[in-house]
Amino acid sequence: MTRRRWIADQVTGDTAALVGDHAAHLARVLRAEVGQQFDIATGDEVRRGTITTISPDRVEFALDTKPCHRRRFKPSAAPRVTLALAIFKFDRMEWAMEKCTEIGVARIVPVIARRSDAHLVTAAVKRHERWQRIVRQAAEQSRRSAPPEISAPVKLKNLADAGVIGTGALRIVLAESLAGSEADDRLGEIVHSESSVDELALAVGPEGGWADPELSWLYETGWVGASLGDNILRAETAAIVATALALEALR
Ligand code: SAH
């Protein structure tokens, strides 16, 4: 059986540690014992770790000197995909974050859109830690070497200035208004025809969709509209489908 993977919070030489709630999860919920072995992602490689000490907020591992998967762990040359995800109902939004992490998204930016519910926008600021926890667990589960970054919520119009999307990125807005249109604007085709991108940003609107002025502004500032087919998808479905299609088209 493959060993469960943990992404280390701290690494010093041949020792690694999980701290805080990350450690508590292993220590209390999973009832860790000294001597148990796991795969530990240390940033640039994965090494086998044996638990040496357990306290409620710290679990330490002695690391084997030989990395287990060095080859698979070279930083990948695949372009980075940033998901600019409008804020919508948290249960569904968090589900999208988890699934897009499994698929391989590099960064998630919660976006304040016109039709994002005002209460959710206020509450989003306090959700950062919870979101980090969700994507870290999903990253460990899917055997990634690192979780995606979660940015602070940003207003749509400040996306460019927030420094979270590279200036050379191919920026694509998933626009439900293009669903079923005749134009050659399917996401997969657009991404596929751009052979030399090294960063891709995907913007997905909230449950109520993008407001017309938002779409106009996105187009004016260089975002390219793309469709995901004839059917109107829920925001969380659109996020997952777009991430999967984009990563596949970039392979
Ligand atoms: N309430 C809106 C739909 C919003 S869907 C309506 O009835 O028209 C939420 C988001 O998912 C959209 O803003 C868009 O970013 C994305 N989306 C859903 N279906 C899509 C499609 N077929 N093509 C492109 N984007 C889509």
What does the largest sheet look like? Answer: 7 strands, parallel
CATH topology of the largest domain: Alpha/beta knot
CATH class of the largest domain: Alpha Beta
Give the overall pLDDT as a whole number.
91
Mind telling me the CATH superfamily name of the largest domain?
Answer: SPOUT methyltransferase, trefoil knot domain
User: Which cofactor or ligand species appear?
Assistant: S-adenosyl-L-homocysteine
Q: Using the 3D structure, state the CATH architecture of the largest domain.
A: 3-Layer(aba) Sandwich
Shape: elongated
**Number of contiguous helices:** 7
Question: How many domains?
Answer: 2
Helical content (DSSP H or I, runs of 4+)? 25-40%
Amount of beta strand? 25-35%
Rg estimate, integer Å: 20 Å
Describe this structure in words.
The chain is of the alpha/beta class and 251 residues long. The protein has 2 domains: 5-67, Ribosomal Protein L25, Chain P (Beta Barrel), CATH 2.40.240.20; 75-250, Alpha/beta knot. It has 7 helices and 13 strands. The strands form 2 sheets. Strands 7, 8, 9, 10, 11, 12 and 13 form a 7-stranded parallel β-sheet that branches. A 6-stranded mixed β-sheet has the order 1-4-5-6-3-2. Helix 2 (90-103) runs parallel beside helix 4 and helix 5 packs parallel to helix 7 (235-250). The protein is elongated and about 60 Å long. Residues 174-176, 179, 204-205, 208-210, 227-229, 231-233, 235, 238 line the site of S-adenosyl-L-homocysteine. S-adenosyl-L-homocysteine (SAH) is lined by residues 174-176, 179, 204-205, 208-210, 227-229, 231-233, 235, 238.
